[in-house]
Structures are given as structure tokens and as C-alpha cells.
Amino acid sequence: MSLNFADRLNNVETSAIRELFKLLGKPGIISFAGGFPDSAMFDVDGIRIAANAALTKEPGAALQYGATEGYGPLREQIASFMQKKGTQDLAPDQLIVTTGSQQALDLLGKTMISPGDKVIVEGPTFLATIQCFRLYGAELISAPVDGEGVKTDELERLIEEHRPKFVYLIPTFGNPSGALLSEERRRAVLAMAVKHQTLIVEDDPYGDLYFGEAPPPSLLALSAQVPGSRDLLVHCGSLSKVLSPGLRVGWMVGPPELLAKATMCKQFSDAHTSTFAQATAAQYLIDGRMPGTLAKVRKVYAERAAAMGDALRRELGDAIEFVQPQGGLFIWARLTGFNGMLSDGAEFARRAIENNVAFVPGAPFYANNPDFSTLRLSFATVGIDKIEEGIARLGASL
Ligand code: PMP
């Protein structure tokens, strides 16, 4: 018997990247394909201490059902974490805890998208967002990105033309673009939210992973300076990339009526994010270990990003171009096709796998009009020696 699945599944295909990942089990492969942090960075001792404290101090709260909006002490700690990063006026009840920021994106889809609604995303953008919004029937429109993030003049033109339900941006070290939206463009985005009364979603799992200077303030922080913009802004945050994705702790800040609907939908979805994970995360933040952890991961990823950038320039030269990222986990590059050299990212990925090195071709990250010459390389999970060896193998795969 063939199962009669819901029509909404017709809008979504399994990702090409998933197919590629099946090949990664090959022995000896050096992989720049992953999208996750390095497990060796996890502060295991700190998390163990926090988990013990959570069980000792509040076993009832840590192991019982909890409020859908999130565990009170964690909401307080997240608000204080965000206040220190520039959103001084954020109160704990202005955010809800989500099961990773991925759930915040799903709740946005559930609460905001009716079939046929238009949503503007960056081209390229986070693949799971494309899949998730399409599942709810969104028609996605891509706004182009350059080294400074989304091109705001183009974005405004698209907003005027399509009147989208909302605009989804990853302004800080985007996945996959690695791009950092300049402060001027951030202000322009907030101004156009107000001018066109358009909801803006800021997805920000990477903002803390900067290598040198701190990035410009988040859209959420800047919204305090642009009257009317806070009411049109949703901000998604996460502990995944800085502490541990396995904890599945994320959060969403947004207009109260949107948070109320999202909370209602979350009730049907998972009732609440794991109380044990929330109590552990709250205790970890209370223990004051986050600044030390952030300093460590920033340093390691900065060294790896620099090593990968140098190796790419050395081994691939004119064959590729990229903007050296100032934070995050990724280098986003384009094959130039210079002197008749290879210009197809998927073909390059196939040849690379034969040479025991993997990365992700860039085309699937576009909701429409893919640039087939692009690729995403993660420098996060591989030590410097292996980065050099892997990039040399890439050079030999051209
Ligand atoms: N948004 C972006 C841009 C991401 O890259 C990711 C993780 N790859 C997520 C959201 C989801 O992360 P999590 O659910 O672990 O918070």
C-alpha cells in the first residue's frame, strides 16, 4: 500500500546535501562539509557541573514538565546575556525558549505562513529554513548578498514588488555566506521595516563567534534606536554554536502577540523544551563560564579560518574567490572559471570526494536562481594540519 501523505510534503525535496553526506563515511576523508561546531570545544566539565547543580538544587523543576514559554531562570539568564550584547531593554518575558533556533523557525512558519504567502530570504540562505518555510507553502524570493550581507537597495525593491509576509535574514556571519551585514545596512533594514510595515526575522546563531572586533549590534539591539522597528522584528538566538547543539536550547524574541501564537503552537509540538537541558543551561550561565568558553572558541575558529583562507589562496589561487570571514564557521567561495578552469561546484565536489576531501556545493542554498559556481567550506571541525592537507587535496581536484 502506498501511504497518502499530506499535500504540504509536495513542496519539499530531501536535500542534495543529505545525499552527499552519505559519502562522508569514507575512511581517510577530510571533511569541510559539516555545519556544526567542533565537539572538542565543548566545555564538558562546565556542563557536568551545571547539570549536577541543576539536579541538586532544583530536581523537581529540572525533571518535571515545565512552562511552554521556558524555564524562568533560563529566560532571565538569556535576557541578561542579550542585555550584555547591547539589547539593554530586553525583559525575560519578551522571549520564549525554543528547542534550538530551528524550532523558532518552524514556529514562525506555523504562525505566519499560509500556502502561497511570499517570504524574502537571502540568496544564499540556510537550507533548513528554505525547506521549513516551503513545508508551510511559502513562495520564497531571494534577495542578493555581497561581502557586506544582503544588498539593501535590492531588498527594498523586492519588498515593494512582492509585499512579503516577512523577510528572513542572517545578518551576522550567515550560513552559508559567512557575510557580515554592515551597520549602515542594518539601519537601512530597520528603516524599511517601518516604512513598509514589513516583519523582519533576524536569525543570529553565529553573532558571538567573531574573530577580531565585535560585529555591529544586532538588528534587535539597534531597533531601540529606530522608533517602531521593535514591533516588526523577530530575533532567533541559540546556544548551539557557542556551547552545545545537543542541549537544543534556542530562543525567540518578538512582538507579544506573535510570541503568544508561537507558544500555543509549541504546546502542540513539544509542550516545552527539555526542562533538564534548560535548567543545565541556566546554571551554566549563572556559573559565569560563558565568557571563558566564548574566548576559547573564538580563538580556535579564528586560527582555523585564517589557516583555511591562506591555504585556499596558496593552493587554488585564481581558481576561486572569496571574502575572508570575520566570524562564524564558514568560508563561502566561488569558482571563477579563470583560464578555462572548473566552474561547477557540484562537479568539483565529486572530484574532491575522489581525492578524499569534502565540502558542500553552494547551489542548494539558493531558494531560486542558484549560482552553480559556489561552495561552502567549514573550517570549524578540522585542525590546522588537516585543513592544510585538505585544501592541498582540493587544489589537486581542480
Ligand atoms: N539558523 C542557522 C542560520 C543555522 O545555521 C542553524 C544551525 N545550523 C540554525 C538556525 C539551527 O540551529 P539550532 O536549532 O541548533 O539552534
Structure report:
This protein is an alpha/beta fold and 398 residues long. It folds into 2 domains: 7-43 and 292-397, Aspartate Aminotransferase, domain 1; 45-288, 3-Layer(aba) Sandwich (Aspartate Aminotransferase, domain 2). 41% of the residues lie in helices and 15% in strands. It has 14 helices and 14 strands. It has an 8-stranded mixed beta sheet with strand order 2-9-8-7-6-3-4-5, with helices on both faces. Strands 10-11-14-13 form a 4-stranded antiparallel beta sheet. A two-stranded parallel sheet has the order 1-12. The mean pLDDT is 96. The protein binds 4'-deoxy-4'-aminopyridoxal-5'-phosphate (PMP).
CATH architecture of the largest domain: 3-Layer(aba) Sandwich
Anisotropy-based shape: globular
Question: What's the gyration radius in Å?
Answer: 21 Å
Arrangement of strands in the largest sheet: 2-9-8-7-6-3-4-5
- Tell me the fraction of residues in β-strands, as a range: 15-25%
Number of strands: 14
What can be said about this structure in brief?
This protein is an alpha/beta fold and 398 residues long. It contains 14 helices and 14 strands.
